[in-house]
Specification:
- This protein is an alpha/beta fold and about 625 residues long.
- The chain folds into 4 domains: about 100 residues, no CATH class; about 150 residues, Rossmann fold (3-Layer(aba) Sandwich); about 100 residues, no CATH class; about 220 residues, Class I glutamine amidotransferase (GATase) domain (Rossmann fold), CATH 3.40.50.
- Helices cover about 25% and strands about 25% of the residues.
- An 8-stranded mixed beta sheet has the order 17-16-18-19-25-24-23-21. A 5-stranded mixed beta sheet has the order 5-4-3-6-8, with helices on both faces.
- Strand 23 and strand 24 form a beta hairpin.
- Helix 1 runs antiparallel to helix 2, helix 4 runs antiparallel to helix 5 and helix 7 crosses helix 13.
- The protein is globular and about 135 Å long.
- About 0% of the residues have low confidence.
Length: about 625
């Protein structure tokens, strides 16, 4: 009607109410009674209103009442004017180009660019074309356009990066690009298996065609996956992901100067350590480089900082005094071996001693491990909550020494525990990591397998809570490890204990590296962290591997070691792993219609005119009486 569309057209049925004032007007028409006067002279004294003026006033009143009712029905129907772009939305062909580290082998990314150019050339003539590049994040390089030369130019300017692969993140961005129109997606990638490991969310609308163009990778890849310092010796881990034996030189460099070089030999699908002894400077950055000309290039080097750093203070709060028990012993011993004891300065205190600390004694700790809360008084609970609100991070374990009634006061948010402590049968509950890219799981090549040796005998059930992220679960049971924001800080909640009472986690090989990486994550931003992994780098620091300045600090940036593994999926497995959104076109069209109606708000104009009509009807009606 007049180019209008309606979100809720059924409300237009209410416009039939305009018949009510029309019928009242017809059935309540006034007719003057005929009076026979005995004398003609009396006729002049009867006050007779002029008929034409009265009829005009009644018609105006009728029109105003009808208009008010019609506008009310229109307002409830939520009218809007569809734009031309929404009515005729051109289909889009989105070319998604993988720019992750696994596309950095010699000649590999040029093949990927050529495939992307061919996808642009062969896109249907009725389609607009867009370009998205993706690695750890996805970027819309060229929005949907008819200028295919501009898209090709964007492809030519794209370069491989040191980032990891996150397919679900890419598909979330691709779905946003397709909103409002039909289309297809062409993904140019090497189908790296690690790209599906992250627990990101991203899906493609149902009915959208996804075409995969596979870029062949190198026959093998060799990477420097770890590096550490032991006095004047640099120890580097070299991993051969190929099926052939690898033999090549490994060098230690400081700046542009090579300090030492020696040959390493690594068997297929194997790893080894190389010890490089040299006279190292007191400060600066060092690089360990392997000569792998055929594999990925960004993982041939790994960097470390030579500057000494002070140990990060960490409080371990227990319920019992450490002098009279083994409380906090396992966590303290694990933190004490980090970087040969130079990384952390752990201090174990029971709740009473922690509460009694002066502000000077408490200072600025890097993190708090809260293993028991039953002996914390109000001052201690307020200290922990204040630490979290100010940006600190806390690990809370839910063992036998936890006072469930005061947990909300202690950490400043609802923990939302179940009513009873769970006791699974036959030691069948183990830990299963759900977000394998979270920093606390980085030490494990296969986190699920490593944590699968952790048998849990008792734990608290964690109920669902808004704003909570699940990092690990118990196999066949509830949440094991969750993360939750507390104003500027964060709290990690482990549903069992770390004191070797409800589980045997402290006795497994996974415990020490897990505690160390957890402490590093908790102390992030409060420590003098020197090494970072792409894309988790300080603000203002380049995502390129190397030695960089972060303000007054010197830091090392390295790629994620998971990206060095060339294991890949098949095209069919890749397509079947893509999540789909339902319903399809109808939902998109409804979303576009709602967006247009929300921006235009014609119903508000209709209500305003309706109120003016009612006001006019009131004024004219008063004069008529």
């Amino acid at each position: 009607m007049f180019g209008l569309s309606f979100l809720y057209p059924l409300f237009l049925v209410g416009a039939a109410a305009v018949a009510i004032p029309v019928l009242l007007h017809l059935f309540r028409r006034k007719t003057d009674a005929v009076v026979e006067f005995p004398a003609v002279r009396l006729l002049g004294k009867a006050p007779v209103e002029r008929h034409r003026r009265r009829r005009l006033r009644e018609l105006i009143l009728l029109a105003l009442r009808v208009t008010a009712l019609a506008l009310l029905a229109l307002a409830f129907a939520r009218p809007y004017m569809p734009t031309v772009s929404a009515v005729v939305a051109a289909p889009v062909t989105v070319v998604a180009l993988d720019t992750s580290l696994s596309l950095s082998a010699p000649g590999q990314f040029e093949r990927a660019r050529e495939m992307a150019r061919e996808a642009v050339r062969t896109a249907p003539s009725s389609h607009t074309v867009a370009l998205v590049t993706f690695a750890d994040s996805a970027t819309l390089v060229v929005p949907p356009t008819t200028d295919r030369g501009g898209v090709v130019a964007g492809i030519d300017q794209s370069q491989p990066s040191a980032g990891g692969t996150r397919f679900r993140t890419a598909f979330a961005r691709l779905a946003e690009t397709l909103v409002g129109g039909e289309g297809r997606i062409v993904v140019v990638t090497d189908l790296q298996q690690a790209g599906w490991e992250a627990s990101d969310e991203g899906a493609v609308p149902e009915g959208v065609e996804v075409q995969v163009l596979e870029v062949a990778g190198p026959a093998g890849n060799v990477a420097v996956t770890a590096v550490r310092r032991e006095d004047n010796v640099i120890v580097a881990g070299v991993h051969n992901f190929g099926v052939a034996r690898f033999r090549a030189p490994v060098s230690l460099r400081v700046g542009d100067k090579e300090l030492i070089r020696q040959t390493v030999e690594v068997g297929p699908q194997a790893a080894t350590e190389v010890r490089l002894a040299a006279a190292l400077p007191a400060r600066g950055g060092a690089e360990v480089r392997v000569d792998d000309a055929a594999g990925y290039q960004y993982d041939n080097s790994r960097f470390l900082i030579l500057d000494p750093r002070s140990a990060v203070p960490v409080f371990i709060v227990t319920a019992e005094s450490p002098a009279a028990s083994n409380a906090g012993l396992y966590v303290e011993r694990a933190l004490a071996v980090a970087d040969q004891g130079r990384a952390f300065s752990p201090r174990v205190l029971d709740g009473r001693a922690f509460s009694a600390l002066s502000e000077g004694e408490f200072g600025q700790p890097g993190a708090i491990f809260l293993l028991g809360t039953s002996t914390l008084d109000r001052a201690g609970r307020e200290r922990v909550a204040g630490f979290l609100r100010a940006g600190g991070r806390v690990l809370l374990t839910l063992g036998p020494d936890v006072d469930a009634a005061t947990l909300a006061d202690t950490v400043g948010v609802s923990v939302n525990l179940g009513a009873d402590i769970e006791e699974p049968r036959a030691r069948s509950v183990t830990l299963v990591a759900t977000d394998t890219r979270h920093p606390i799981f980085r030490p494990f090549v296969n986190p699920t397998g490593a944590l699968g040796d952790v048998y849990v005998e008792r734990y608290w059930r964690l109920n669902e809570e808004a704003g909570r992220t699940v990092l690990a679960r118990f196999s066949g049971a509830g949440d094991a490890l969750v993360e939750q924001a507390v104003e500027h800080g964060r709290v990690l909640i482990f549903a069992s204990d770390l004191e070797n009472r409800w589980n045997r986690f402290p006795l497994t090989p996974a415990f020490v590296p897990w505690v160390i990486e957890t402490a590093r994550y908790l102390a992030q931003g409060r420590d003098e962290r020197q090494a970072f992994t792409v894309p988790d780098v300080p603000a203002g620091v380049s995502l390129t591997p190397g030695v960089h300045q972060a303000g007054e600090r010197t830091v090392a940036v390295n790629p994620d070691v998971r990206e060095s593994n060339p294991a890949r999926t098949t095209t069919d497995e890749f397509v079947s792993a893509i999540s789909r959104l339902n319903p399809v076109a109808a939902t998109r069209a409804d979303a576009v219609a709602r967006d247009q109606e929300e921006r235009q708000r014609l119903w508000q104009v209709g209500l305003l005119v309706m109120f003016l009509a009612l006001a006019g009807e009131g004024v004219i009606g008063r004069r008529a009486t």
